[in-house]
Amino acid sequence: MTLVVARSENGRLAMAADTLISAHGSPLPMRNWAIKLACLPGHVCVAYSGSPELSWRFIKDFRATYPSGAGYDTVISFFELAGRKTGCDFIVGFSHTGKLVSIKDGLRCTGVAKTHWIGDFVAYKRFCEYQYRKKEKPEHGRAISSVMFADEEKGSPASDIYSIMRNVVADREITSVGGFVTVISNRESEFRFSVYSDILMDWPIELTSGQDIQLTDKNNLISTGENDRFSISQISLGYYNINMCAIYILKGNILCLLSEPDERSDGCVIIKNVAPNKIEETIDRVIGFPSRALSLIMSSRKETIAPFRIRSPNEGLGLNLYCEANTMK
């Protein structure tokens, strides 16, 4: 199964999806994972739930049939037909108008909701529980997640939906989704994968596991033990409208390159022992052309912990962060 959540805020669009692929009710290993978000000609983005093979077949058919893009009605009709033929569901985003359209069971869903979803209902219900803080986060009492997005446009909902989706993916009770969280958003009139770094930090010793941390708390957040230098980052290629991104796991120096499947690859390439400063050249070597990779690899290191001094009553949490790599210009 799958969970894709998309949101529109004042013309800014963002979609977040898991990468897990299952077969016969069982999760497949990382090498079989896939991106479920795709850019299309004409300032359009689409997400799918269902068979990756069938979904990508229609995504590629659309690109071949409409290389310069198509009008709103044509796009919707195309993916309604794709839904009826494949049993897959889709969310289509239009950058020019800031509009999202869900297509379920081969039909466009009507409504004016800002948030759209496709995939597993149980997973989306859990998404809502995390959104409205009706359930504690999976790492509650052990760690705190600090997420940095590098270059989102003002008002982009990308950070908001990622910060909720990451909890669903990490929730061991929800077996229908998993893997990584990939995020795509619009900037100007085009779509591009987002650049983020998700850092884990120690749960403050001043708080009990039943308490929630507040931004105004006078705590100094650090990382030790299992949280030391633990972060997961999404890397975007430096181009608009390209269906490829990478996920980097700092703790193991693992780079996972995700792309649309073709005759050479199912769409997931895993490279081990990649240092943060070697990410771009590694991607270049794998894909065969300059990636212009956009990355922000952050961590919290035990050896760089510095005391945090509150200088005014308005200051709250202190973060000890270390930049492992930064190619943002």
Mean pLDDT: 93
Distance between the first and last residues' Cα:
37 Å
Order of helices and strands: EEEEEEHHEEEEHEHEEEEEEEEHEEE
Fraction of residues in H or I helices = 10-25%
Low-confidence stretches: none
Q: In the CATH hierarchy, what is the superfamily? A: Aminohydrolase, N-terminal nucleophile (Ntn) domain
Number of helices: 5
Global structural class: alpha+beta
Strand order across the largest sheet: 11-14-16-17-18-19
Global outline:
globular
Number of domains: 1
What does this structure look like?
With 329 residues, the protein is of the alpha+beta class. The chain has a single domain, classed as Aminohydrolase, N-terminal nucleophile (Ntn) domain (Glutamine Phosphoribosylpyrophosphate, subunit 1, domain 1, 4-Layer Sandwich), CATH 3.60.20. It is 19% helix and 33% strand. The strands form six sheets. The chain has a six-stranded antiparallel beta sheet with strand order 11-14-16-17-18-19, sandwiched between helices. A hairpin with a 4-residue loop joins strand 7 and strand 8. The longest helix has 15 residues. The chain is globular, with a radius of gyration of 20 Å. 43% of the residues are buried.
